[in-house]
Design brief:
alpha/beta; Uracil-DNA Glycosylase, subunit E; six-stranded mixed β-sheet
């Protein structure tokens, strides 16, 4: 998928009629995806049973499409939708505490129009940012299997070809970090993943003409409730992005 990037060493090598239309096509493919029966069954089961607090909601219950500005210079890669978050609302990082944490930081840095994300119809808009994930279906216990991540990787590769303006990639969590590096390695853009060590707010220069990669702890409830990731720490990540974008 990324052969054109390997040949030309920049994100603009693939020519498409319309980035917005092409990204919309990717998302239609995502929503219709049935490559992982275990995940589809889990999403549908959660959507049917619901959580008591959301019994009046019509759950999304399908793979969750990516979201954001098609001309974005920052790409955020998360792990997977939460069972009663994005699997309920149908939008990345929407409807759970992880999303509350993330969108407050994005709003503070000027990447989001508001500091909360409750539903697909709440008016939230991203500016210069696009959010995707390593896996598009909510996994049992928040742990997608390696084969399921490999199945889903094709959509990330497709998005990377279409998002021509990306200058910085923010990987939220180790899995997102490893998946992104595996895409670069398989495309021949890096020789090995070994030199790149995951740490919070660490910068990784992957190669000439490629976006800067910044690794960050994931804003999971486990990380935020224990203090492993604080609001200040996440804000610093996006302030760092702003500096690299020259703002």
């Amino acid at each position: 998928m990324l052969l054109s990037l390997a040949e030309n060493s920049n994100w603009g090598a693939l020519q498409v009629r319309s980035t917005s239309a092409s990204l919309a096509l990717v998302q239609r493919e995502v929503v219709a995806c049935a490559l992982c029966p275990r995940l589809r069954a889990h999403c549908e089961k959660v959507a049917a049973e619901k959580r008591r607090a959301y019994r009046d909601w019509e759950y999304w219950g399908k793979p969750v499409p990516s979201f954001g500005d098609p001309n974005a210079r920052m790409l955020i890669i998360g792990l997977a939708p939460a069972a009663h978050g994005a699997n309920r609302t149908g939008r990345m990082f929407t409807g759970d505490r992880s999303g509350d944490f993330l969108y407050r930081a994005l709003h503070a840095a000027g990447f989001a129009s508001q500091p909360f994300s409750r539903s697909r119809d709440d008016g939230l808009r991203l500016r210069d940012a696009y959010i995707t994930a390593a896996a598009r279906c909510a996994p049992p216990a928040n742990k997608p299997l390696p084969a399921e991540i490999r199945n889903c990787r094709r959509y990330l590769e497709w998005e990377l070809e279409l998002l021509h303006g990306v200058k910085v990639v923010v990987a939220l969590g180790r899995i997102a970090f490893d998946v992104y590096l595996s895409v670069l390695k398989d495309a021949g853009l890096i020789a090995s993943r070994a030199p790149f060590r995951f740490a919070h707010n660490r910068e990784h220069h992957t190669g000439p003409g490629l976006p800067l990669l910044i690794s960050s702890y994931h804003p999971s409830q486990q990380n935020t409730s224990t203090g492993r990731l604080t609001e200040v720490m996440l804000h610093e990540v996006f302030e760092n992005v702003r500096r690299h974008l020259g703002e």
